[in-house]
Write a structure and sequence with these properties.
alpha/beta, Rossmann fold, 357 residues, 15 helices, elongated, binds zinc ion, 2 domains
Length: 357
Amino acid sequence: MSATEAPDSLLGHIIDPRVALPAWLSPHTTRLLARREAFPHALLLSGGAGAALDSLAEALAAGLLCDAPLTDGAPCGDCAACRLLAAGTHPDLLWLSPAEADEDAGRKASSQIRIEAVRQLIGTLALRPHHGATRVSVIDPAEAMNAATANALLKVLEEPPPGNVLLLLSLRPLRLLPTLRSRCLQLRVVRPEGVGWAAAVGDGSVDAPENGSSGTVDPALAELAAFLRDPAPEAAARAVWPAQRALLDALARGARLGVPAAARTAGLTLPAALDVLSRWVHDLARVQAGGTPRFLPGRATPLAKVAAEADRQGLMHMGARLAEWQRHANHPLLASLTVADILLEYRAELFPAARAA
Ligand SMILES: [Zn+2]
């Protein structure tokens, strides 16, 4: 590799410019791309659903890199740049993520973006874009940079060389260096309320409420259900995983959930905690929508009690978060996640008024 070219690990990300964004995300792209010339040089996209952040970053990159964008700034899908994006060969799209495992090379997956990779990125940014006037660099996720790595990026983030746009993605923006955040325009991506619960958790067995809110599916909850195929796990859990049962007991306390104690439950692993919490949240959503528990029928009473006090939108956010974590169960993004982290987030989302320890 010569010093004047982007290293292979930064290239090759495939974007299909013709794939439409979910409707709730497209106002963000329209607003930002409508004035390409005023596009922020460093943008921090944060929020609950990582897949949504990826989609948004891809749509923004495609709009910025397209040679002949439509009037609303969306990519045309047909120009040379769009075709390069679809082939994963656009030279001015750099996508920086922790290294994935490579069995052939005997390399394990990393949870960190290496400082060398950031230095290579910075070196590339100093050059003119190859194809058009703009280069887009995506850092996904930004919290995979440790302090030293983030520091290396600060200067270029403050004033990138002309023609460069940097997009930082973060599920947990509060974990980023404040100096890093302050150098970016921040856009928090929140899934709006208004997607129907009953259909969202629907598997055909729940009664749709009569209020007409059915008909739209919350993809996160539908996805969550797909991870939880076993319809009657509780008996098995009772026998096999006392830790999961203990966590369910703790969750029954609703807003009074004691996070440190629950997280210290003996034998409770992160996958086990995710599994239990996913079932619990899924069933809470069903009960709140007037349905019956699907995964935890034996817990109908505490579910009803907790569902009555849980914040509806927070519950939806948590469903999206859990689906995200389940989807990336082996992703480096999750390497630093702890049981206490997910329980703290659960409690903050569902019981925003509670400030108990
Ligand atoms: Zn195009």
